[in-house]
């Protein structure tokens, strides 16, 4: 049940707090190449943020034979796992989470990464002391741009949609938040441009967590009260 008195910030993680967007791009490119699918990296990059099912639909077509999808996902996961020990937070990520917690806001990682990837992402962030709750792909029936992972994040944290702000780096994040009427702050550190995020409906756009941290007193997060 939502606590009407509590407010919080939901954060996407990949590309928003941890610098992984291009690692996912390269991993998908190689997984697809191994299966004789020649997909330009630019197209792959623009699909990052979707769940793997929708990403493959977007890149290979919804009418394709899906029998090989499992092998493609496994190949991506194996390739991406090679980077886990080198994952790094984006500038200001830890500090932004801490600043939100200091304001009395619940800090929620609303990620649709698989559970084993979430462990690596949390290790890179090293901010468990200020994180209230964390989702994973197991918590959502449908991936972004569907809002399922945000619904799960709200349920787990006891927050109401009208008492939160979402921070993400892709148009898919903005679209998912929009379906629940949650204001979404966009960050360009995942590689999506300022104009595109704003055009998708982001209420404000910053370069990275550090810039949002510096602007926090005047941001949509501060407006939560």
Your description of this structure?
This protein is of the alpha/beta class and 225 residues long. The protein folds into two domains: 8-20 and 88-224, Rossmann fold (3-Layer(aba) Sandwich); 21-82. Helix content is 42%, strand content 10%. The chain has helices at 21-34, 41-47, 52-60, 69-81, 93-102, 115-125, 148-157, 171-178, 194-200, 209-214; strands spanning 8-11, 106-109, 133-134, 164-168, 184-187, 204-206. Strands 3-2-1-4-5-6 form a six-stranded parallel sheet. Strand 5, helix 9 and strand 6 (204-206) form a beta-alpha-beta unit. The protein is globular, with a radius of gyration of 17 Å. The chain starts with 7 loop residues before the first strand and ends in an 11-residue tail after the last helix. Pfam families: Hydrolase (PF00702). One of its GO terms (molecular function) is phosphoglycolate phosphatase activity. This is Haloacid dehalogenase superfamily, subfamily IA, variant 3 with third motif having DD or ED/haloacid dehalogenase superfamily, subfamily IA, variant 1 with third motif having Dx(3-4)D or Dx(3-4)E. One of its GO terms (cellular component) is cytosol. It comes from Micromonospora marina.
